[in-house]
Amino acid sequence: MDWKTFMTEIEGDIAAYSKEVPETVRGFGIMGKAAKTDGALSEKTKEFIALGIAIATRCDSCIGFHVRSLVRLGATRAEMCEALAMATYMGGGPSYAYSAKALKAFDVFSA
C-alpha cells in the first residue's frame, strides 16, 4: 500500500462527502477536538487508543489518520511497536496483520 497516495485519495473522498453533510462534519469535528484535548490522558495516549481501535476494526484510513497524528506528536518507533503488540494480543491474527500495516504507515510518515 502506498500510504501517502492512499491518504491523499481518502482525504479527497472525505472532503467531497463533507460537502453533503456539513452539520454532521461540524459536530464530528467538535467531538474530535474535545476527545483529543489533553486531560488526565495526553493527546498522544488518546491517539494510541484510537489506533488500537482502528486496528481492531480494520479501518485503513483510520490507521493512516491516527499514525500521522502519532508521528506529529513525537511517538517513537519503540512506543509504536509496544502499542501494536498490545493491539495484536487483544485482536489476534487480523490485528497482527493490521498492526504490521500500521508499522509500515509509521515508517512512511516518519521518513
The named CATH superfamily = AhpD-like
Task: State the end-to-end CA separation.
Answer: 16 Å
Strand content: under 5%
Radius of gyration: 14 Å
Taking pLDDT < 50 over at least 5 consecutive residues as the criterion, the unreliable ranges are none
- Total individual domains: 1
* CATH architecture descriptor name: Up-down Bundle
CATH topology: AhpD-like
What top-tier CATH class fits best? Mainly Alpha
Average residue pLDDT: 98
How many E strands? 0
GO molecular function: peroxiredoxin activity
Domain Carboxymuconolactone decarboxylase-like: 22-104
Pfam families: CMD
Organism: Ruegeria sp. PrR005
Helices and strands in order:
Layout: H1 3-20, H2 22-36, H3 43-56, H4 60-72, H5 77-110
Helix pairs in contact: 3-4, 3-5, 4-5
GO molecular function: peroxiredoxin activity
Protein name: Carboxymuconolactone decarboxylase family protein
InterPro entries: AhpD-like, AhpD_core, CMD-like
